[in-house]
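Before drawing any conclusions, I needed to go through one protein's amino acid sequence and its backbone structure tokens, quoted below without any editing.
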Amino acid sequence: MKESNSKEKHFENITMNEILVAFSQKYHGHFFKILEALREKERLTNKDIKLYLEDVEEMNETILSDKYPSPLKEIPNPPFVLYYEGNLELMDKKGIQIALPVDEENYHRCFFALEENNGQMDYCIGVEDESDLSFVVENFIERNPHYKFVDYSKSKEMENSLV
């Protein structure tokens, strides 16, 4: 009995960042669907939130995070959650570029920042829907073979192995 009480207490301390990530997962990053859920005070159970959080595989920052890129806060309808690969600091340092929608039906945008340094192209690529990230990163790198991109896949593998 004590064990179940301690588990329940753990999930009672859910943060707003975790709620935003859960809604982002539920609505695939769709800004207006997430906004509507928040306005209508849609409730997710602790179990649902836990399941959504367990599904997250990519690095991310919510709009409430101190690490969330400032330039994104300046655009209309900024992503509630930015799923990204690369050096997130570049978005503050170099500004962001917004690419055409990855998914025109749901208007998922792609955001990126680039900086050449010592012959390598450092980058940060971010998306609104986590499921778009791998495709967007691979496609971006393949379409720009003249650049030698920093390889962030190794650091992602190490991070995932620590979990």
Remarks:
- DSSP finds eight helices and five strands in the chain.
- Confidence is low (pLDDT under 50) at residues 1-11, 157-163.
- The first strand starts at residue 59 and ends at 62.
